[in-house]
Amino acid sequence: MPVQTSFNPKGRNELKHAISVAEYRVLRSKLLHFMRRDSNAGANGKYLIRSTYFDNFDNKILNEKKEGYLNRDKYRVRIYGKSDAVVNLERKSKRNNLTFKSKCEMTRAEFEKMRIGDILWMEKDERVLIRDLLFEIQNHQIKPKTVVDYEREAFMYPYGNVRVTFDLKVQSSLQNTDMFNKHLPMVDVLEPNLVILEVKYDEYLPDVIKYLLQLTDTRQEAYSKYQLGRMYG
Question: Per the confidence metrics, is the pTM higher than 0.90?
Answer without folding.
Answer: yes
